[in-house]
């Protein structure tokens, strides 16, 4: 989030409460979870320490605040000429990142040492010794400021490797989805040299970058279908069939595909919605013509309730469908038998089915983003999804029996 240096300005950061650190960690963990996930390896030692890390993206600050222990109330050194150049930037930096100003010019070393008291009190001070964001993942040389501070305070230096932020938010690029990994190394003595500290960070970064994200073969197969030209037609046909006779709701399909490929959720949800509307309209016309299609897993009580609602409310009765457990095909067939006009039915069902289908699709996509680092468990997720759906369907049918 900031261009960080190891050379600060003459200002002492006010002591942050542990509650503030907890809230900041929760905030950035939530943000990064929605953009691909954050994974931490290792922990900071007890007591104060100076954290030194590689720096390739503004997202590095968010990654560290999400990963480091809140009990250390991490303070982030930030470039004074950028993050403290205006009142609103200063407020953002201090409140959202617990940042303290770091001048790029001379006279910063003695101001950096004002953080020594915070370190002795048990706080973690985070610095990026390269002094600026690196290009192409190559680490620059480390300045000595962070090490001088650690030696003055008598605390260890902790190397940290960050991977994935350069894909999440590239330098001069746009935000995209990516898993972020933060690997915390073993503490180094305060008298460590800049070269030794840099080598430790390089090793952690290389190890973190080189570790592939474990995935499920089942998820990959599902993703291949979803992202192919058959993905949207599959969603359309499934929902179309369900609106006529098929007993499995399109939300079951969305639960599988939107978790496998979150970015495909909008188009798959819209495909399912279009299929539902087309199938519901056909069901209405067939029923009005006296055609009785099979309707497995429905009951006479469901049909009686829908007839009662249609008699009272007309086409708008379908607004109850997303919440009462009665299948959409029952509403379509009974609307046809009740003589509901097709345009009225289409408008009402578009509002009712649209709100449910799009909400469900986006909710599963959000869950897929949160669980991205657990993709290898996708097969088990499908089993749980199917089991939960079967149990829920059984309860609904039994309740309407």
Helix content: 40-55%
Helix-strand sequence = HEEHEHHEHHEHEHEHHHHHHHHHH
N- and C-termini, Cα separation = 58 Å
Strand order in space, largest sheet = 1-7-6-2-5-3-4
Sheet-strand content, in percent, reads 5-15%
Number of strands: 7
Report the uncertain regions: 1-16
Number of domains: 2
Organism: Streptomyces poriferorum
Transmembrane segments: 270-293, 381-400
Keywords: Acyltransferase, Membrane, Transferase, Transmembrane, Transmembrane helix
GO molecular function: acyltransferase activity
Describe what this molecule looks like in 3D.
- The chain is α/β, with parallel strands linked by helices.
- The chain has two domains: 18-210, no CATH class; 217-399, no CATH class.
- It contains 18 helices and seven strands.
- It has a seven-stranded mixed beta sheet with strand order 1-7-6-2-5-3-4, with helices on both faces.
- Helix 12 runs antiparallel to helix 18.
- The chain starts with 17 loop residues before the first helix and ends with a helix.
- The model is unreliable at 1-16 (pLDDT under 50).
Features:
Lysophospholipid acyltransferase family protein; alpha/beta; transmembrane helix; transmembrane; acyltransferase; transferase; 8% strand; 2 domains; 7-stranded mixed β-sheet
Quick summary of this structure?
The chain is an alpha/beta fold. The chain has helices at 18-34, 59-67, 80-83, 87-97, 109-112, 116-120, 145-153, 165-168, 194-210, 217-226, 231-244, 250-260, 265-288, 300-313, 321-324, 328-337, 342-370, 378-399; strands spanning 38-41, 49-53, 75-79, 99-102, 124-127, 157-163, 180-184. The protein folds into 2 domains: 18-210, no CATH class; 217-399, no CATH class.
């Amino acid at each position: 989030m900031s261009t960080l240096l190891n050379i600060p300005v003459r200002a002492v950061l006010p002591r942050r409460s542990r509650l503030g650190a907890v809230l900041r960690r929760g905030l950035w963990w939530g943000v990064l979870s929605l953009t691909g996930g954050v994974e931490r390896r290792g922990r900071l030692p007890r007591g104060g320490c100076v954290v030194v890390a590689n720096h390739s993206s503004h997202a590095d600050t968010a990654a560290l605040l999400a990963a480091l222990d809140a009990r250390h109330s991490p303070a982030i050194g930030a470039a004074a000429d950028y993050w403290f150049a205006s009142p609103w930037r200063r407020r953002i930096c201090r409140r959202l990142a617990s940042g303290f100003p770091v001048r790029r010019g001379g006279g910063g070393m003695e101001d950096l040492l004002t953080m020594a008291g915070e370190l002795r009190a048990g706080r973690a001070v985070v610095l990026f010794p390269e002094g600026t964001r690196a290009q192409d993942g190559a680490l620059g040389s480390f300045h000595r400021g962070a090490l001088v501070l650690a030696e003055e305070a008598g605390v260890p230096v902790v190397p940290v490797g960050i991977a994935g932020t350069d894909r999440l938010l590239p330098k001069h690029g746009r935000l995209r989805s990516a898993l972020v990994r933060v690997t915390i190394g073993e503490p180094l003595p305060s008298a460590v040299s800049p070269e030794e500290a840099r080598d430790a960070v390089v090793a952690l970064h290389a190890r973190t970058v080189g570790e592939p994200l474990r995935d499920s073969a089942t998820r990959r197969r599902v993703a291949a279908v979803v992202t192919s030209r058959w993905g949207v037609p599959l969603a359309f046909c499934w929902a179309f069939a369900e609106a006529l006779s098929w007993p499995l709701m399109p939300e079951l399909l969305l639960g599988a595909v939107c978790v496998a490929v979150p970015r495909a959720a909008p188009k798959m949800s819209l495909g399912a919605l279009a299929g539902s509307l087309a199938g519901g309209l056909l069901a209405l016309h067939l029923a009005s013509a006296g055609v009785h299609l099979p309707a497995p897993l429905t009951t006479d009580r469901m049909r009686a309730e829908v007839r009662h609602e249609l008699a009272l409310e007309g086409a708008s009765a379908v607004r109850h469908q997303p919440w009462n457990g009665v299948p959409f095909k029952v509403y379509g067939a009974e609307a046809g038998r009740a003589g509901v006009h097709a345009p009225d039915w289409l408008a009402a069902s578009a509002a009712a089915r649209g709100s449910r289908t799009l909400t469900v699709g986006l909710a599963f996509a959000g869950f897929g983003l949160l669980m991205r680092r657990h993709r290898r468990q996708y097969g088990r997720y499908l089993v749980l999804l199917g089991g939960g759906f079967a149990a829920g369907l059984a309860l609904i049918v039994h309740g309407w029996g």
